Amino acid sequence: MNSSELGVIGDAELVEELSLLTTQTARMRARMADIMAELERRRCAKPAQPSVRR
């Protein structure tokens, strides 16, 4: 949705769209936190890899 489209939409519709986007953003942030926590859990669960020196 671009600026010219926003100008013809009523206040209620704009608030509804904003609410939807806010909810989607919150869900995405929660999902990102879940993924980062899982990656951290996996990283910590791996045994330490000895460094190979030549």
Protein model, in words:
The structure is a single chain. With 54 residues, the chain is an all-alpha fold. 72% of the residues lie in helices and 0% in strands. The protein contains 2 helices and no strands.
Short summary:
Helices cover 72% and strands 0% of the residues.
Roughly how much helix do the residues carry, as a percent range? over 70%
Main beta-sheet strand count, sense and barrel state: none
Question: What is the number of helical segments per DSSP (H or I, 4+ residues)?
Answer: 2
Total beta strands: 0
What does the average pLDDT come to? 90
Q: What is the gyration radius calculated from CA atoms?
A: 22 Å
Beta-strand residue fraction: under 5%
Through-space gap between termini: 58 Å
Shape: elongated
